[in-house]
């Protein structure tokens, strides 16, 4: 507001205010660039959270997000889900699986908390209870590993 008042005075003939006006304007533009870079970095981090945690964020992370960021996360989640359903045939293609190339198709996992029944594609169900160990397909349990339900035993 002070800058606009000085601009009005400079138009009236006070040319000594031009440098002050230019300095304030450059400062405002710099602050705007910094804010935009900060917000863009937060969006990149929120996008990375979708790939790391899946479609549901932990409450501890969601607590530190603004309402607009949560809304952006939900829109990104829906957009990604729509794209994954559109590729890969009838079942779609889950791009969030195998973020790192697997060394084997099956891995040994330990259950860190009670989860309940877990169905594998061949129709068998496995009861995931705390401290139980299982030999499961990597692609089926990778999401649960990221969520903290299972732990990969090396």
Automatic annotation (TrEMBL):
Pfam families: PSF1_C, Sld5
Key word Nucleus present: yes
SUPFAM superfamilies assigned to the protein according to its UniProt record, in alphabetical order: GINS helical bundle-like
Domain GINS subunit positions: 16-87
BP terms from Gene Ontology: DNA strand elongation involved in mitotic DNA replication
UniProt subcellular location: Nucleus
Main location: nucleus
InterPro entries documented for this protein: GINS_A (IPR021151), GINS_bundle-like_dom_sf (IPR036224), GINS_Psf1 (IPR005339), PSF1_C (IPR056783)
UniProt keyword list: DNA replication, Nucleus
GO cellular component, one term: GINS complex
Domain named DNA replication complex GINS protein PSF1 C-terminal: residues: 103-153
Domain of life: Eukaryota
Subunit: Component of the GINS complex.
UniProt similarity note: Belongs to the GINS1/PSF1 family.
Annotated function: Required for correct functioning of the GINS complex, a complex that plays an essential role in the initiation of DNA replication, and progression of DNA replication forks. GINS complex seems to bind preferentially to single-stranded DNA.
Protein name as catalogued: DNA replication complex GINS protein PSF1
Gene of this entry: Gins1
């Amino acid at each position: 507001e002070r800058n606009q008042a000085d601009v009005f005075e400079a138009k009236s003939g006070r040319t000594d205010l031009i440098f002050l006006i230019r300095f304030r304007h450059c400062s405002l533009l710099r602050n705007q660039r910094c804010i935009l870079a900060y917000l863009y970095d937060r969006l990149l981090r929120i996008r990375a959270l979708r790939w790391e945690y899946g479609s549901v964020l932990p409450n501890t992370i969601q607590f530190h997000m603004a309402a607009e960021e949560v809304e952006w996360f939900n829109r990104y989640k829906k957009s990604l889900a729509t794209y994954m359903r559109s590729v890969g045939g009838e079942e779609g293609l889950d791009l969030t699986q195998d973020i790192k190339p697997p060394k084997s198709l099956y891995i040994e996992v330990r259950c860190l908390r009670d989860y309940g029944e877990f169905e594998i594609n061949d129709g068998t169900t496995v009861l995931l209870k705390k401290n139980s160990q299982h030999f499961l397909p990597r692609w089926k349990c990778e999401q649960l590993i990221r969520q903290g339900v299972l732990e990969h035993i090396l």
